[in-house]
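step=encode ok
step=design start
structure_in=
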């Protein structure tokens, strides 16, 4: 009886491949190769760090920013929103609503003057709504038609599916008062304090009505001739003047304000003008210059 030889294959590889000094990043998935070491002390430290990070994130909510002309918002480009369709039903708040310099009852200031602030900014409103735990969308280039020099608008979600986001805020007026109170806590110099220095009363420029002398004159008076000029309600109110000396213009208005000689708006315009300069001196047939319209006349014989 013949014996068969058993063949045993052994693989012995002592090759040791060194890991790279820097991890190879693959985008959001993390590095391909990473040195992993197990230690009880490291596990306990990582768990404590994670718990502290979660605690800080749950206390404050960073506001979202609407897209700007450059594609990124100032300060936090990671929270830029490109589609504002989900935020259409949120409440819009302008700085003019809590401005102590504005008249009350004319669609401008909507809370009492002692509860408002001097020189409100949309950034301060966005920070205040975030501290109140409300959904916030900051639109830096939107402006109120009566407050063009101080652009900025904040969309706030203080109700969600009929449920209040903050139990202390039940109406829009309470929302404005809470926002103004948050700003007053940080900027105490902007709190209006009586007695106020009021502006002088407006001078009436009304003209007496002209008495009609004939039937034609009556028709003209009905059409609007000879009617006294009436002052608007907002112009009749005496407004307070902010305390002197006034702060710097850059701290009174938004950085996107057209009133600033140097700001985000001016820099954007300059960037657009400098981008068009290389193609300004090109020949008519080159792509840098656009051809004008040509008018073709066809004569039928």
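sequence_out=
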């Amino acid at each position: 009886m013949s014996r068969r030889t058993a063949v045993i294959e052994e693989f012995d590889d002592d090759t040791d491949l060194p890991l790279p000094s820097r991890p190879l990043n693959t985008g959001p998935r993390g590095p391909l190769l990473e040195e992993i070491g197990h230690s009880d002390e490291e596990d306990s430290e990582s768990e404590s760090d994670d718990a502290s990070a979660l605690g800080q994130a749950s206390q404050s909510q960073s506001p979202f920013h609407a897209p700007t002309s450059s594609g990124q918002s100032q300060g936090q480009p990671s929270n830029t929103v490109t589609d504002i369709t989900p935020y259409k039903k949120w409440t819009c708040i302008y700085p003019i609503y809590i401005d102590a310099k504005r008249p009350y009852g004319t669609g401008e200031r909507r809370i009492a003057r002692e509860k408002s602030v001097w020189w409100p900014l949309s950034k301060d409103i966005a920070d205040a709504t975030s501290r109140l735990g409300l959904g916030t969308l900051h639109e830096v280039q939107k402006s109120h038609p009566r407050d063009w020099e101080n652009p900025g608008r904040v969309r706030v979600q203080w109700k969600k599916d009929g449920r209040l986001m903050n139990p202390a805020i039940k109406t829009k007026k309470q929302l404005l008062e809470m926002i103004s109170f948050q700003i007053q806590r940080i900027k105490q110099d902007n709190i209006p304090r009586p007695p106020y220095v009021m502006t002088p009363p407006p001078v009436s420029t009304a003209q007496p009505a002209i008495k009609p002398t004939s039937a034609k004159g009556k028709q003209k008076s009905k059409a609007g001739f000879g009617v006294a000029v009436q002052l608007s309600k907002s112009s009749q109110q005496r407004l307070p003047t902010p305390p002197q000396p006034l702060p710097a213009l850059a701290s009174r208005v938004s950085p996107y304000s057209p009133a600033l000689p140097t700001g985000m708006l001016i820099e954007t315009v300059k960037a657009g003008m400098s981008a068009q300069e290389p193609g300004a001196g090109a020949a008519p047939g080159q792509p840098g210059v656009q051809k004008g319209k040509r008018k073709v006349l066809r004569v039928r014989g």
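step=design ok
step=annotate ok -> The radius of gyration is 33 Å.
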